[in-house]
Amino acid sequence: GKQLRDFKDAHTKNDGRLRFSKQNVVYKSSKTGKVDNIPAAELSVATWRRVCLGHGIKLATSSGHVYKYDGFRDTDYERISEFFKANYKVELTEKDMCVKGWNWGTAKFSGPLLSFDVNDSSVFEIPLASVSQCATGKNEVTLEFHQNDDSEVSLMEVRFYVPPGPADEGADPVEAFAQNVRSKADVIQATGDAVCVFKELQCLTPRGRYDILIYPAFLHLHGKTFDYKIPYTTVLRLFLLPSKDQRQMFFVISLDPPIKQGQTRYHFLILHFSKEEELKLTLNMSEEEVEKRYEGKLSKNMSGSLYEMVSRVMKALVNRKITVPGNFQGNTPGAQCITCSYKAQSGLLYPLERGFIYVHKPPVHLRFEEISSVNFARGTTTTRSFDFEVETKQGNQFTFSSIEREEYGKLFDFVNAKKLHIKNRGFKEAKNNEYSDSDDDQHDAYLERMKAEGKIREEGDGSNDSDEETVLLPSLSLRYDSNASESDSGSGGDGSGDEGKKKPAKKAKVVKEKRERKPRKGKKQKDTNAPKRPMSSYMLWLNSSRERIKSENPGISITEISKKAGEMWKQIGKEDKEEWDGKAEEAKKTYEKAMKEYREIPFLSIRESKKEDKKRKSGGGEKEKEQGGNDSFKSREFISSEESSSDGERKKAKKAKKAKGTPQSRDKVLHCHHGNNRMD
């Protein structure tokens, strides 16, 4: 009279033991210890079916419950059938399943089961108690199921297409189908009025504007396309994060399990607010009920910023603390976050007291306890930014890129204070210099080239005192005077030493020699032998405090030292500053005494050389005046027959030059202008 064997529960797929006795049918799960006790008097239907694990039995009771057990062999059918007839007065009927693979059939609701049949043969059955959500669309009903944590693969969603009914029928077949599901399913339904309603709130994930209805047990997001019902038991954490511009706020709700939209899963619900939005809120409850239920956390009438109202209500109903940024301060004044990119999307990284959170696409929350190590890496595209890499203990890596190098010191100090393992800690100083002064330390090719040219000019000055350059034009040899402003009043040079320099050229070519630039007029030459000027009180204090600042701020850059020193100098008291002012005054007196002694040293040789230079310059000017050149003088190629009035003057000038001993074989000097410079 007993049948005791190992079977599987068809609902949970857990192994267990099934016993048939005259009084009842008992099944005990080996994993959970759960016991199903079915009295023999309540058995109404017993069905034998071929299933994927061999054969199975389906038992239905008069109270509407259905039980399924798999794992039977084909030879068990006769013995179980005879036992049911003799003891339960129930016939074990054999029913085949439809295996045609058709997806068009009839949906039948029988108690807690939804059966999909094709030609009166069952294709599959859905226990409605496993349904968590039921959403309707145009001619479509979507069923979502509770997750099975014990199973590696779970069915999450099934969609049914419901064709429109006849026009004379008033009921909508889609709503009728959904109502049958909701009547037996474990679906969250809005019973009663909402505690409060927030209209048209902007959501970043899922994107869109939603009306948020706050119920005592769940949160209802109602949008134009999708609806979500979120039980408060699925809310893990709440975050309230200020934006970098200090004018906007993010309210983040962490969810597990996530809300689903098709194949997309949203583990975070992110609401976006402006600080300027105000709201007057009235709860749909009496004052006594509000006081009794929420114990002073809420009041019936509240007013303030919209983000404050939402966060306050959520905190009271979910009964969880709201996480806000800690003491971290970024490079931007007042900013408690860092601008960066994650997966080619720009967002904000918030260093919190117990982790990091990135908003918004996709949102990422990393707790310190699950972080294995962090790494600071140089940016791949530019030296003005760096990457922050976070590796978890599970082996996952998150890279936040394009972080401004000014944030390096702040972020490094934060990570170091939280005692996170930094992979490249040994290269801290090198990284610091690399990010802070990389532009200054880079090799400047242009600067090196200009230095080399300066050396060439200095070497050329010893052999050639002339600043003139030779310009080769077709059939002419011209001397180029670079000081056009000085030679405008007269022709430059004395004309000596130019014989034999004329070279025929095939085509016009300008050849310039390296020459040293003359110092600007009025600019004082620095005397390298003179005593050095004294330092100010601030510079004296900085030189003595530099090492102390470095030791108190490990990892500080060179530029940050100056900023830090400026802030510390402002905070120094008046008495301490007077001490450094006295030292600066002593240094000034020492400098003045040294300068007085330095000026008393005779400079005869220098003064004499200066006088000779002045005489040489004045002599050159007189020669230029005697030559009588001016801007209006033209060469023979540019003189027309109409311009013969000045021929007499030019002949007189030539005779004057010959009388002074100008060689007869000398090349003719042609005066012209090239750009802003005059050429002889």
Task: Itemize the secondary structure elements and their pairings.
Blueprint (H helix, E strand, L loop, with lengths): L2 E7 L5 E6 L3 E6 L5 E5 L3 E9 L2 E8 L4 E7 L3 H13 L3 E4 L10 E5 L2 E6 L2 E7 L3 E7 L2 E6 L11 E5 L11 H12 L11 E10 L2 E7 L3 E5 L4 E5 L3 E8 L5 E14 L2 E11 L3 E5 L4 H8 L6 E5 H13 L3 E2 L14 E5 L2 E7 L3 E5 L4 E4 L3 E8 L6 E8 L4 E8 L3 H10 L10 H9 L1 H4 L3 H19 L5 E5 L2 E6 L2 H4 L49 H16 L5 H14 L2 H26 L4 H24 L19 H13 L12 E3 L2 E3 L1
Parallel strand pairs: 5-8, 19-24
Antiparallel strand pairs: 1-2, 1-7, 2-3, 3-4, 5-6, 6-7, 9-10, 10-11, 12-13, 13-14, 15-16, 15-21, 16-17, 17-18, 19-20, 20-21, 22-23, 25-26, 26-27, 27-28, 29-30, 30-31, 32-33, 33-35, 34-35
Helix pairs in contact: 10-11, 10-12
Keywords: Chromosome, DNA damage, DNA repair, DNA replication, DNA-binding, Nucleus, Transcription, Transcription regulation
Family: Belongs to the SSRP1 family.
Protein name: FACT complex subunit SSRP1
Please, could you describe this protein's structure?
The chain has 680 residues and is of the alpha+beta class. It is built from 14 helices and 35 strands. An 8-stranded mixed beta sheet has the order 4-3-2-1-7-6-5-8. The chain has an 8-stranded mixed beta sheet with strand order 18-17-16-15-21-20-19-24, with helices on one face. A 4-stranded antiparallel beta sheet has the order 25-26-27-28, with no helix packed on it. A hairpin with a 4-residue loop joins β30 and β31 (397-404). The longest helix has 26 residues, at 574-599. It is elongated. Mean pLDDT is 76; it is low at 1-6, 426-442, 463-502, 604-609, 621-645 and 661-676.
